[in-house]
Amino acid sequence: MSSDKVLLDYGSGGRASQRLISELFVKYFANPELERLNDAAALKLNGTISMSTDSFTVDPIFFPGGDIGSLAVHGTVNDVAMLGAIPRYLTCAYIIEEGLPMDDLERIVKSMGEACKEAGVNIVTGDTKVVPKGMVDKIFINTTGVGEIIADPAPSGDRAAVGDAVLVSGTIGDHGLTILGTREGLSLESNVQSDSAALNHLLVKLVQEIPDVHVLRDPTRGGLATTLNEITVSSNVCCELEESNIPIKAEVAGGCSFLGLDPLYLANEGKFLCILPQEYAEQALEIMRADELGRDACQVGTITDANPGKVILVTPLGGRRLLNMLEGEQLPRIC
């Protein structure tokens, strides 16, 4: 690009906008449908589709383990896949603050393109707006994803049943603690980093090999505890969590203890919950552990009818604690 910073002209729709699109976005997002540069995309999909949209305002925009660009792809791809679907296409809209360094924008766009290739999806249409300095914080990204549902019946938050096993694909709280530590300049352990990743390939394998997966959900904002509360309310069941089984990295537990945070409520961007009949639990864990993104998978609880709509944490000493849904945001702008 001819400028080292993003100018208002780049959001004008004129020649400057066209240069930005052709020299930056098309360069890293290249695919036949996008390269037609139409106002909409003609897509081929079969059967029932899964569709999700999300906006990303994470602060800081670069963090250990990822950035706002890769996170925008991972977040929406994962949401689409949670219905037992194969994600196919994404849309992408940028709202950029005037003066953002062009090198930062290119780094984000490049990261986003690489994340799309890893996930096997194409960005097929999008939009770019540039607003005056101070009207937005650096850059916000919106993505919408669509995919083909292959699970029958599709997993859903209202399908958890009494007797089901509750599995988690790996350690929790990594992303939330990383964002807070980076934002505040805290000296955390060097191997604390975001778990941001596209889970769709693992999820597709899971729903293809397990006859009936009742619920799939990624515990992002509000973390494990809030997500399970949403599921128990939707399904009118109770979830009993075994505290000693919940995988938490020692450095994450230590950081949370120091900061007064509960890792059960911290965001995750590369983990998922799987709720399914107990008879399929071991098979599901084998599938998950065979993948790098699920190597720490384990069963953390069971679904009961004891206290419908509630999540109960069972401590190592046999005590029982109610895990309520958070009233507000424990950590703002974590995605």
UniProtKB/TrEMBL annotation:
Protein name: Carbamoyl phosphate phosphatase, hydrogenase 3 maturation protein
Xref: Gene3D superfamilies: PurM-like C-terminal domain, PurM-like, N-terminal domain
Entry-linked Pfam families: AIRS, AIRS_C
Domain PurM-like C-terminal positions: 162-312
PANTHER family registered for this protein in UniProt: CARBAMOYL DEHYDRATASE HYPE, HYDROGENASE ISOENZYMES FORMATION PROTEIN HYPE
Single Gene Ontology BP annotation: protein maturation
Matches recorded under InterPro entries: HypE, PurM-like_C_dom, PurM-like_C_sf, PurM-like_N, PurM-like_N_sf
CDD domains linked to this entry: HypE
Domain PurM-like N-terminal: 38-149
Record family assignment: Belongs to the HypE family.
